[in-house]
């Protein structure tokens, strides 16, 4: 039996694997293509065992990566509070990416009249309001109010400069806090989430400037 046609089919699949954009389909096509070469290699006058060995190695590598991809793409259910912030703030991130980001976050509550941020301090935390209102004040004068889904003192956090105002809870404020140290370590592994967060922070700043 001539297995040359099957071998040509395998090479067509290899070409298709390099064309598709979805990495999952690249893995699937590569696995099928590798499997399709086995009859051709085995039924040669002298079986090409070395070629079969390397094809087996390629299959194992792609099966491992394919398994990881499928696990990463499983649907995830967000807790209600994180789901709300996903809708309000982090729509550009997938639910799985949002879960990763919030895995290093801390939740806190400020009572009415409590300072969340003090003026002339180094901002070593990125702060995001989940619910409630906070007054942005300087020298006892209020010049802005922040609320649900808005960041606090993000300009100071981004630039490393000292905060220019106090932020005081007008009502009970529940907010999320990320430490700079944890975020920096996280972004070394998740550069894509870092890029999205930078865009989100920029949009937040632009929105506040428009309100002013």
Model description:
There is one protein chain. The chain is α+β, with helices and mostly antiparallel strands. The protein has 8 helices and 8 strands, in the order αααααββββββαββαα. It folds into 2 domains: 4-72; 80-211, Jelly Rolls. 54% of the residues lie in helices and 18% in strands. The mean pLDDT is 90.
Which oligomeric state applies? Answer: single chain
Which geometry do the CA atoms define? rod-shaped
Kindly report the CATH topology of the largest domain: Jelly Rolls
> pLDDT below 50 for ≥5 consecutive residues: which ranges?
none
- CATH superfamily name of the largest domain? Jelly Rolls
Q: pLDDT average, as an integer?
A: 90
């Amino acid at each position: 039996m001539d297995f040359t046609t099957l071998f040509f089919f395998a090479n067509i699949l290899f070409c298709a694997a390099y064309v598709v954009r979805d990495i999952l389909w690249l893995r699937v096509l590569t696995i099928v293509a590798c499997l399709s070469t086995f009859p051709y290699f085995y039924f040669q006058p002298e079986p090409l065992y070395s070629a079969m060995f390397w094809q087996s190695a390629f299959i194992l590598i792609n099966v491992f990566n394919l398994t990881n991809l499928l696990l990463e793409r499983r649907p995830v259910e967000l807790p209600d509070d994180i789901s709300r912030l996903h809708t309000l703030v982090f729509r550009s991130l997938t639910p799985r990416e949002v879960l990763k980001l919030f895995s290093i976050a801390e939740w806190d509550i400020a009572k009415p009249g409590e300072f969340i941020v003090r003026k002339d301090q180094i901002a070593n935390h990125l702060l995001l309001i989940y619910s409630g209102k906070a007054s942005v004040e300087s020298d006892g004068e209020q010049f802005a109010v922040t609320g649900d889904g808005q960041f606090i003192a993000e300009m100071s956090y981004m630039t490393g400069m000292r905060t220019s105002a106090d932020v005081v809870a007008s009502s009970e404020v529940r907010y999320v806090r990320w430490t700079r140290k944890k975020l920096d370590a996280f972004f070394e592994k998740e550069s894509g989430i870092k890029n999205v967060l930078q865009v989100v922070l920029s949009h937040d700043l632009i929105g506040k400037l428009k309100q002013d």
